[in-house]
Amino acid sequence: MDQAKIEELKAIAHRVRCDIIWALAHAGSGHPGGSLSATDFGVALYFHALRHDPKNPCWEGRDRVIFSKGHVSPLVFSLLAESGYIERQELKTFRKLGSRLQGHPNMECPGIEVGTGSLGQGLSVAVGMALGLRMNRSDSRVYCIMGDGENQEGATWEAIMSAGHYKLDNLCVVLDNNGLQIDGWVEDVMGLAPLADKWRAFRWHIIEIDGHDMAQCVQAFEDAKKVKGQPTVIIAKTIKGKGVSFMENEAEWHGKAPKRDEAIRALQELACPLEYFDF
Amino acid sequence: MAEVKARATRDAYGEALVELGAKDERIVVLGADLTDSTRTKWFADKYPDRFFDFGIAEQNMLNAAAGLSLVGKIPFVSTYGVFVAGRAWDQIRTTTCYSNLNVKIGGAHGGISVGPDGATHQALEDVATMRVLPNMVVIVPADFYECKKAVMWSVEHYGPVYLRFGREPVPIVTKPEDPFVFGKANLINDGSDVTIINNGPVLKQCMEAVEMLAQKGISARLLNMHTVKPIDRAAIRQAAMETGAIVTVEEHQVMGGFGSAVAEAVVQEHPVPMRFIGIQDRFGESGTPEELFEEFGLTAKHIVKAVEEVLAQKKGRG
Question: What's the whole-model pTM score?
């Protein structure tokens, strides 16, 4: 991967962060913390690894993406806007009555494979898709974006177990390991360590990266494509709220939208263009 | 060959899946370690590449079915009704129903007729929990033939379907040529004093009750209503207007289930006195099906008593 491409992806990630804050400012509610922590690998996925056609969202040969952590809808819709599935202006309707951009994504929005948001459900759907695609002799891959706190849901482990059992090498999970959940640090609320060992015990291939290092994110997706006979989980170490100083590593920013002055501060920190200050 | 007089509705499910499997490559079947008792083993033996055992993990199985449906398969998820409609309710609600996915759910071992296993394995709330979900269709077939038709129909319909089966052989009372029209009741016996509306494999008891009532000079209409949702409001309105009293019969809790669905229609269409035969806010227990039907008030004798009560109320209203 050449440096120019990495720089281009970083520039996209910067625009996506601006859009996340912008959409949240218009909505007045939503989830900034996990959206910002998952932005860099999200961009690496959508603008490097993923096989998709935003002009033809239902193209059969596409790779599938399931955001099991559906509360990161500000990130999801920003990625979809940046990719061209939806108009960027539509982000202003986020969380408003009648909008295709619901608080947690659903199938009304082009580019969304299935409604998610109730944690611990997405990976099971991804398992079914990966099984079905394999039956169809398709070479499409299934990506599932999960939070670390989600591993506390028992059904998640059922899904992890079944993916290992069925040797789903067309399935790749990205685990947004920001270490925080609504009630505080994951390790204080309900500890998951050693996280990688748990997944490994269920027959998964493990890749551990710095989830804010764009080159590592891109490389991880490339490496995952080469793994045969087992599913892959990319455990991405991230910082909740990454990019906005007062949100970083603060649990309270899990599900709280910035007030007007806070949004302005965040956009200033991100050096966003003037058009972002229209709320 | 001797005429078959009784067969379990779960057998019809197993047979229908095998027939569907031959006709349609999209059919896949998912099980949770109960392959034999849900009769999905018959499909698994014939089409091993299209059968997946998910082990004792129903929540994952239900969402995996959703995933399969999203890539063009028609998954039939099969386990006991208690485990699927209870344990995996959230998955059915938030993934399958919210996204209106093409997932077919077979809930086996419905009702108390499961018998000796007792309360933990007797699905008595599944119709209520499935009926409340938007986009979900709920069908409880009365016998072998009706069940087979229901399963075959479910493939023609895009969207989530809950089909409920029983463990025990039940008398075959419908005919192969009887119509199965989705959402429409079948008239088994016409009558003018009261209407008995049956749901599921207790139809034989209802037929016996109609005969016993006739001997007492009471003319009972008997409707067999396989589709709980959407409920046949037209047949209910007609029954209410023409007979002025209704008794519902189901092998399920009376709260929130089939009788409640009928009552919702009755109060909006044409209010008349009603009685509800079913489980009266109790858990089941171990016993033979016959003993349990007696204990829980599901025999023809109990239906007759309910009819007499509702007729007294109808008369009292003048």
Answer: 0.96
